[in-house]
Write a structure and sequence with these properties.
With 220 residues, the protein is of the alpha/beta class. It has a single domain, classed as Glutaredoxin (3-Layer(aba) Sandwich), CATH 3.40.30.80. The protein is built from 8 helices and 8 strands; from the N terminus they run H-E-H-E-H-E-E-H-H-E-H-E-H-E-E-H. The chain is globular.
């Protein structure tokens, strides 16, 4: 059973005509034959199927699938700590992560990440890119979203673009509904919400000039 209807597939194919460089979707999932207590992953199967369907829409895309329990070497290599997880990467790993299945209003987040990596262009302002180059300490952006939030994709994609522009930035987009304990830990009562280095909290879908200010605060 296909997760994407034919109209959506046609739209995505058209969008992917502008892809330039190869993109790899590295999917971390759970083998249906192997279960560990506390690690049951309700959406792992559908997330894998979604990534495989998307990859079929362009010869620039490929998929690698790893089991979260069995493939510990790859889990450590990519720093994955929960599933389902998808890494969007090109020639190098730019720290772009999606935790949870990017369906609904979050599907554009996946498409944006693929486009950014393939075209090697974020369309961020020169000022923002210059400030990102000033970052010397690691920055971890966690953007909490839901699949029914029409404003979340812009916040999620902005964080991914920051990660692509700076080797010091890692950006996780997290479905708050799939990871409720993590959302509770960071007091996520509304989305989108961006957490910078576990301490700086940013509410709402803010523009890049405000996010770069909050990101630079983590360097102090």
């Amino acid at each position: 059973m296909s997760l994407l209807d034919e109209n959506t597939k046609d739209q995505v194919r058209s969008m992917f005509n502008d892809l330039v460089n190869p993109v790899k979707l590295v999917v971390f999932t759970q083998d249906s034959l192997l279960y560990a207590p506390g690690l049951e992953c309700e959406n792992c199967k559908d997330n894998r199927l979604l990534m495989e369907e998307v990859a079929e829409l362009s010869d620039k895309l490929s998929v690698e699938v790893y089991d979260f329990v069995k493939d510990k070497e790859k889990v450590e290599e990519y720093g994955i700590d929960k599933i389902p997880a998808t890494v969007v990467t090109g020639e190098k790993d730019s720290g772009i992560r999606i935790y949870g299945m990017p369906a609904g209003y979050e599907f554009p987040t996946l498409l944006s990440a693929i486009t950014t990596v393939s075209r090697a262009s974020t369309e961020l302002s020169e000022d923002t890119r210059a400030k990102l180059k000033e970052i010397t300490k690691p920055v971890h952006l966690q953007v909490f979203v839901t699949l029914t939030c029409p404003y979340c994709a812009s916040a999620a994609s902005l964080a991914h673009k920051f990660a692509f522009e700076s080797e010091m930035v890692k950006a996780d987009v997290i479905n708050a509904q799939e990871f409720p304990q993590l959302a509770q830990r960071f007091n996520v009562f509304a989305v989108p919400k961006t957490v910078v280095n576990n301490t700086i909290h940013v509410e709402g879908a803010i523009p890049e000039d405000r996010l770069i200010v909050k990101t630079l605060e983590s360097q102090q």
